[in-house]
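Priority: medium. Attachment 1 of 2:
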């Protein structure tokens, strides 16, 4: 090996080295959390490229999120430099979008197809359930959507499903009708839903073997991270890509629409496949992920090499011991013991709050004190089981001026004004998408109501033209002159934006076309004006969000000088939970446990460790539910490098009511000598009177639970019947608006909770002004002036 090879392989342990350098048709790397699976995959790519065994274009690497893809690409680049250009490193969905954009015209779509996110398909299914009177048969939009999604993940379509369903059951019949109608509507709108992106690519490869062969020829090395969370459709996609070139015999569908494959010898011509995964981290069964894809890999790819990794490089021994202990309660798993040579490290810290606000305050204070000892905010993360738990954390973080970032970029794109703006772009990019056109018809208000919408649809049906073309014929619609003018105007601005964003063949759109087109649409439609004129304070936020979207299009133009509006919409549609709009550096990351997969942080706060949250009450009674929840808990624990906090609250406002929370059963599975309780359920118990089923935890020496008393929040949420009422000085914290309060250094203030103090400095501007205050009793604090409970004295 050359010297440069040495640094590529430097520091790898023997099984890691083997996994990087093994050459053969199929390689399975199974290993526990933090053992270097993703690192090994990355180095394997680098090693294939450096040794010139592969061109970048021959690599297809699949990661679970776009963010992970970006990181892997960067890492490969840093290992071998420019030779990394041109690889496909992406999620399953992004890879399929790229393939479908090239090939969709093979089967009745155009390359400008729209991608329906789950909200879009929900809206469509809702309409169809209504049209087919599904509710009379007990069919709900949500239930129908998730059933269709599950079937698609098994590669079943409406017809194949109907063949084996019990069609004498009226409910089944209606379901099949809706399923079929849904598919027809998607086709008509030139749209794919998320599941179709994978399923239709599999269909493409099976129906058009010569197309599949092109990709088999191209991708000679296929690598998949987080393989334990692939579903059947994704499995089938990989299987199609790794069949020998020229093998066009398609597998047969068996009952249930499940495709059954005969194991076939991996021919010389087949691409090489590397998958890495950990069955203990399989957390997407509810979305159809099938752990068998990993457990049966050796059957599906006979002769596959298997490498096991056991040394963990991420966490301290205390954290690993906790993780090992918890996961060993799942039966039916291969026993594996992670170990590390970094030593025991800090104890795990436990805390029980009186309420979720109290818990959040503990987290915020702990973050501040870690920060003071030099831990960067970006190296800390707070996890929770459900999104709704973030609210209490956010409230306290804002008050305490802890910089934070919620991971879960989709939220931004779920906002109504953003969806409106994107619908305008879709209406330009894919005129066949009737749903997008209907959405913008009366946004902003143009006086176009349901009646007019129906007239347009009827005219389109009569003339056998599209909804979009009907708009261009406003004078023929039989509506009054005012409405006619409004429709003509909408038609005109769509045409004008089309000319900017999708100029005629041969003419190049400028890189800023999307930004220009979007700005034009929002200006000329009157959308911006309507928000500016409004007195609703929320509309100001909406304007800011739209400005942000315009900024996103500019950023897109910088990164993709040749990107079209279609590329932009694809990118937006595929923003996944773990992806973030902007750089999270300098902020604490807040996210759900599902989003945390694959990540690592110096300090991790696992909050809400309570029954009904984890295990979640929905999963608790489902077959396999608690085991999957335990894996989720295991994923959370194993994200921590040096410090792990497990916290819970005694009471929690959840699902619209305040409930007394019980410690999670998983907490009892962590050996008690590993946890140092700052305030244990036991402490709370002894001070607060009786509490059934309280955890029998060992209160630690020097527990100073009393010191939290002055900072408790939100007693208005506590149920009247609990012992909590007995605690005095629980001041309800009302959010107030101090936006106009002028403070200067030297001023004295009084804070509802912290008492009196002196302002040292004021930083930031507007709503983000922060006062740095030295309180007489509690010391230095940073306060967001706008909402802190303070007054000048
Ligand atoms: P997960 O199961 O959580 O996805 P993983 O198995 O993919 O984890 P990695 O994320 O690849 O693990 O690695 C965990 C950490 O260990 C990373 O910080 C990585 O840089 C480090 N690491 C991996 N292998 C080594 C090694 N041989 N020497 C030093 N550090 C290593
Ligand atoms: Mg990994």
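Attachment 2 of 2:
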């Amino acid at each position: 090996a050359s010297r440069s090879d040495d640094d590529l392989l430097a520091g790898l342990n023997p099984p890691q080295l083997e996994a990087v350098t093994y050459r053969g048709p199929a390689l399975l790397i199974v290993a526990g959390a933090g053992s270097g699976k993703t690192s090994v995959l990355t180095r394997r790519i680098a090693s294939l490229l450096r040794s010139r065994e592969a061109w970048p274009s021959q690599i297809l690497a699949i990661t679970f999120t776009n963010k992970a893809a970006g990181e892997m690409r960067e890492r490969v680049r840093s290992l071998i430099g420019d030779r990394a250009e041109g690889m496909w490193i992406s999620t399953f969905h992004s890879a399929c979008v790229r393939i479908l954009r090239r090939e969709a015209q093979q089967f009745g779509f155009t390359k400008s197809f729209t991608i329906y996110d789950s909200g879009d398909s929900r809206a469509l299914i809702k309409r169809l359930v209504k049209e087919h009177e599904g509710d009379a048969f007990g069919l709900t939009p949500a239930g129908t959507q998730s059933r269709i999604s599950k079937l698609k993940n098994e590669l079943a379509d409406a017809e194949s499903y109907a063949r084996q369903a019990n069609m004498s059951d009226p409910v089944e019949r209606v379901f099949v009708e809706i399923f079929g109608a849904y598919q027809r509507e998607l086709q008509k709108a030139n749209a794919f839903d998320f599941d179709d992106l994978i399923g239709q690519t599999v269909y493409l490869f099976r129906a058009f073997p010569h197309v599949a062969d092109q990709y088999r020829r191209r991708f000679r090395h296929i690598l998949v991270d987080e393989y334990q969370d692939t579903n059947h459709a994704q499995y089938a996609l990989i299987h199609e890509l790794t069949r020998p070139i020229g093998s066009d015999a398609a597998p047969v569908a068996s009952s249930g629409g499940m495709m059954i494959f005969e194991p076939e010898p991996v021919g010389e011509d087949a691409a090489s496949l590397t998958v890495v995964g950990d069955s203990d981290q399989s957390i997407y069964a509810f979305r159809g992920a099938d752990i068998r894809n990993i457990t049966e890999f050796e059957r599906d790819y006979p002769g596959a090499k298997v490498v096991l990794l056991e040394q963990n490089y991420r966490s301290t021994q205390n954290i690993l011991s906790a993780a090992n202990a918890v996961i060993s309660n799942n039966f039916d798993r291969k026993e594996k013991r992670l170990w590390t040579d970094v030593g025991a490290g800090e104890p795990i810290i436990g805390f029980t709050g009186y309420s979720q606000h109290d818990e959040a305050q503990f987290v915020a204070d702990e973050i501040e004190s870690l920060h003071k000892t030099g831990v960067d905010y970006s190296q800390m993360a707070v996890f929770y089981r459900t999104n709704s738990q973030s609210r209490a954390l956010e409230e306290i973080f804002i008050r305490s001026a802890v910089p934070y970032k919620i991971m879960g970029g989709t939220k931004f794109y779920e906002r109504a004004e953003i969806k409106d703006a994107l619908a305008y772009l879709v209406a330009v990019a894919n005129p066949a998408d009737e749903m997008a056109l209907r959405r913008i018809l009366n946004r902003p208000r143009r006086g176009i109501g349901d009646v007019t919408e129906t007239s347009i649809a009827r005219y389109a049906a009569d003339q056998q033209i599209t909804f979009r073309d009907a708009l261009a014929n406003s004078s023929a619609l039989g509506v009054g002159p005012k409405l006619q003018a409004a429709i003509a105007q909408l038609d005109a601005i769509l045409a004008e934006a089309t000319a900017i964003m999708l100029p005629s063949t041969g003419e190049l759109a400028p890189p800023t076309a999307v930004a220009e087109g979007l700005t034009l649409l929002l200006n000329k439609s009157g959308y911006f004006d309507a928000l500016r004129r409004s007195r609703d304070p929320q509309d100001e936020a909406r304007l800011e969000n739209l400005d942000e979207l315009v900024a996103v299009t500019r950023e897109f133009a910088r990164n993709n000088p040749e990107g079209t509006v279609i590329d932009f919409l694809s990118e937006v549609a595929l923003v996944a939970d773990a992806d973030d709009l902007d750089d999270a550096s300098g902020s604490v990351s807040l996210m759900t446990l599902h989003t945390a997969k694959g990540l690592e942080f110096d300090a991790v706060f696992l909050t809400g460790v309570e029954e009904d949250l984890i295990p979640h009450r929905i999963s608790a009674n489902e077959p396999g539910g608690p085991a999957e929840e335990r894996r989720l808990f295991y994923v959370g624990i194993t994200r921590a490098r040096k410090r792990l906090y497990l916290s819970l609250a005694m009471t929690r406002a959840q699902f619209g009511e305040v409930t007394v929370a019980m410690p999670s059963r998983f907490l009892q599975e962590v050996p008690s000598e590993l946890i140092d309780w700052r305030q244990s359920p036991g402490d709370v118990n002894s001070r607060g009177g009786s509490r059934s089923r309280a955890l029998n935890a060992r209160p630690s020496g020097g527990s100073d639970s009393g010191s939290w008393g002055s900072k408790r929040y939100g007693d208005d949420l506590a149920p009247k019947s609990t012992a909590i009422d007995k605690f005095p000085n629980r001041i309800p914290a009302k959010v107030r608006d101090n936006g106009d309060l002028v403070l200067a250094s030297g001023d004295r203030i009084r804070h509802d909770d912290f008492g009196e103090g002196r302002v040292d400095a004021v930083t930031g501007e507007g709503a983000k002004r922060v006062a740095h205050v030295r309180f007489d009793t509690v010391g230095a604090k940073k306060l967001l002036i706008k909402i802190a409970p303070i007054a000048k004295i």
